[in-house]
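USER:
Before I trust my own judgement here, I would like a peer's view. Write it directly below this note and I will take it from there.

ASSISTANT:
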Amino acid sequence: MYRSPLSALIAASLVLVPAAALAAHGRVGLWTVTTSMQMSNMPQISPEAMAMMKQRGMQMPGMGQPMTTQICMTQEQVIADKPPAMSNREESCDTKVLNQSPSLMESSVSCHGRMNGVGHIKVIWRGNEHYEGTYNFKGVMDGQPHEMTTHYSGDYVKSDCGAVKPFVLPKSMQ
C-alpha cells in the first residue's frame, strides 16, 4: 500500500514529538497532550495514517487548530534518554540530542529517503507534570518543498491509564 512520507511525518509529529518530550522526564501514566500544526503544501493524509490517528483517539483538525489527545507513558518511555526513532522503508530519520538539562531538551532530526529534510525539537519542562515545546521541520518531497511547525504541551493526569494503551511505534515507522 502506498503511504505518503509526509502523512507519516504528520502522524509522527502528533504522536512521537509528545512522546519525545517525556524522554528522561515526566511521570508514568496518563497524559493529556495538546498539539497545533502549521504546514506549507498540505498533503493528503494516507488512509493508514488516518487509521492510526483514529485508533489513538485523534482527529485531524484544520491546520493551526489545537488537537487534544491522551497518551499513556510507560516507565521505560519516561526514563529513556532520547526521543524514539522514526524510520520506515521509504525514509530514515535520525534524532540527535543537542542539549539536555533538567528543564530543557533540544534535538535535531535529519531525514533521508523519499523525503529529505531537517528538523528541530525543543522541549521545556515545568516540573515532571507539564511540558511544552516546538517541532520545526523543513524538507523536500517529490521535488516539492514542505515546511511544518508544531507547538505542543502536555499535562500529567493520573497514574492509571485506564483504557488508553501505552504508545507503541507502528511497524511501518520502525
In short: The longest strand covers residues 144-158. The chain is about 20% helix and 45% strand.
